[in-house]
Amino acid sequence: MAAKELHLGVALDGAGAHPAAWREPNSRPAELFGPAYWVDLVGVAERGLLDFVSIEDSLTVPYERRVDADGAIDRVRARLDAHLIAARVAPVTRHIGLIPTITTTHTEPFHVSTAVATLDYTSRGRAGWQVRVSGTPEEAAHFGRRAVPELTDAELAEAVSSGVFPPPVVELFDETADVVEVVRRLWDSWEDGAEIRDVADRRFIDRDKLHYVDFRSSHFSVRGPSITPRPPQGQPVVAALAHAPLIYEFAARAADLVFVTPALDAGPDAVLTQVRDAATRVGRTGEALRVYADLVVFLDTAAESGARRLTRLDELAGREFGSDAAIFTGSADELADLLLDWSGRGVDGFRLRPGVAVDDLNAVADQLVPILHGRNAFRTTYPNGSLRALLGLPTTVPNRYATV
């Protein structure tokens, strides 16, 4: 094996990252909201020996911020619940990690805790959680319990470039850090071995091994304990997508993985430095935050180059595709070169976003992965164990409430 083995995951979002992806011949638009489509996609990712699939979700339908898409009918304007997709594919997969996106701003942390813990049980220790902040007025309007101010494109661009966000945005991320803290404490509220299941003595649990979390902040007051025993991993993997120092700080406070979006021309060096600096500012100790670079990929096929595919999809959509992540077009060999280069510069792993889910995910599994095998840079079989083990995270996580 290479000195540093690559870590690869994939982000699944409907028919693909491109808004016209559903119109491609292989995209199965009639099946997007059926279980077979998702089982097949995750099966391809597992065939490719990928670390995990993350499943995108939000409290709004897919849209492009810079385009008035309220009345758009030429793109997929609906979603399934990411956690329930993960629950459906968990029993029919064996090794690949499952990381659904679950929003926090309008969701109770107690519910998130039990949902992810349950997924960890049904997947036999392969669950994760991508934390998402719900920061738009449209999302708030679904619930009617709070007002969320809207940033203009100019205000958002200025905040990202300067690193100075308006107080309401800072407050949202402070609240989300509290959500993750509550969830993590609830996962620990049952000690390992709290379930006795002693029929003769009529004792199912050892009550001394269940603990109140008694979390109090300006956002939450949660007593606990959870109603779900401690997950098989102890602490399922927590991930976050980040684009700016404020959000790098949140990830350093709360997450195990951070998905970042370096530009192709600039490379990952500056982002890696910002993430390290953010971890220092918040005083992160212990296990280092793992940094995964996101790339949207349109890979060459036998019939068409990736660049031509993207151009053709843009023509179908009537506009140029844009993304928060860098857009790669080219051959699987060229993508392998890029991944190995960035890995050598300190990136811990990669999350690929298929431009067209069916086509590009198959290309990753059937073209990219064999090339990486030929370069001794990627596993040739799955090891046994949990998602934490697959990602190189500690597999024994001490319980903060356990008594000696």
TrEMBL record:
| Domain Luciferase-like, chain residue ranges per copy | 29-305
What residue ranges carry the coiled-coil annotation?
none
Establish whether keyword Oxidoreductase is in the entry: yes
Q: Name one GO molecular function term.
A: monooxygenase activity
Q: Which SUPFAM superfamilies match?
A: Bacterial luciferase-like (SSF51679)
Key word Ion transport present: no
The alphabetized UniProt keywords are: Flavoprotein, FMN, Monooxygenase, Oxidoreductase
What's the protein here called? Answer: LLM class flavin-dependent oxidoreductase
Record-listed FMN binding positions: 57, 101
**Lineage top rank: taxon:** Bacteria
> Which family, according to the similarity comment?
Belongs to the NtaA/SnaA/DszA monooxygenase family.
